[in-house]
Specification:
By secondary structure, the protein is an alpha/beta fold. The chain has helices at residues 15-31, 56-79, 98-109, 131-139, and strands at 6-10, 34-41, 89-95, 113-117, 143-147. The protein has a single domain (6-147), classed as Rossmann fold (3-Layer(aba) Sandwich). 42% of the residues lie in helices and 20% in strands. A 5-stranded parallel beta sheet has the order 3-2-1-4-5, sandwiched between helices. Helix 3 (98-109) runs parallel beside helix 4. It is globular and about 55 Å long.
Length: 148
């Protein structure tokens, strides 16, 4: 029986992700579930390029600012939806390969349902499924709802 109590919604803060968040909020409200919003930063701040390096403290400071800005954006995204006030929402920001971190989060939190956009900010075409969504769909141990 479909009764998700722990719902994961990965977000890249795009309008596509807004649609997934809207669905996830409604599902969480309907089933009395808890919502986990996750943003994955694909690349950490690079300390060196080909011809220039910044010192470690500055790189760490920039990385922390990037993470904090992402945390604020997730909260802003959740607040767009009136129903979000009625449910428990936990937000998190991770660094790494998006599909790997999403699947890791699913396993660590015992997620029952992943709700995500079929396209993200890197979507190449309206009618193709995104590579992150495809990888999560193929490797998830729980149900996955792809939102168009």
């Amino acid at each position: 029986m479909f009764n998700p109590k722990k719902i994961l919604v990965p977000t890249d803060m795009s309008s596509h992700a807004d649609k997934a968040v809207r669905h996830a909020v409604e599902i969480a409200r309907q089933f009395g579930g808890e919502l986990f919003m996750l943003h994955v930063i694909h690349d950490s701040v690079q300390q060196c390029t080909v011809d220039y390096c910044i010192d470690s403290p500055l790189a760490e400071k920039l990385q922390n600012e990037l993470i904090e800005a992402a945390r604020k954006k997730i909260l802003e995204q959740a607040e767009k939806f009136p129903g979000a006030k009625d449910i428990t929402i936990t937000t998190d920001v991770k660094i790494g390969i998006p599909h790997d971190r999403i699947l890791q989060e699913e396993e660590e939190r015992g997620i029952d349902l992943v709700v995500m956009s079929s396209l993200g900010t890197t979507g190449l075409a309206k009618y193709m499924i995104g590579s992150v969504a495809r990888h999560v769909l193929q490797n998830s141990k729980c149900s996955v709802l792809l939102v168009k």
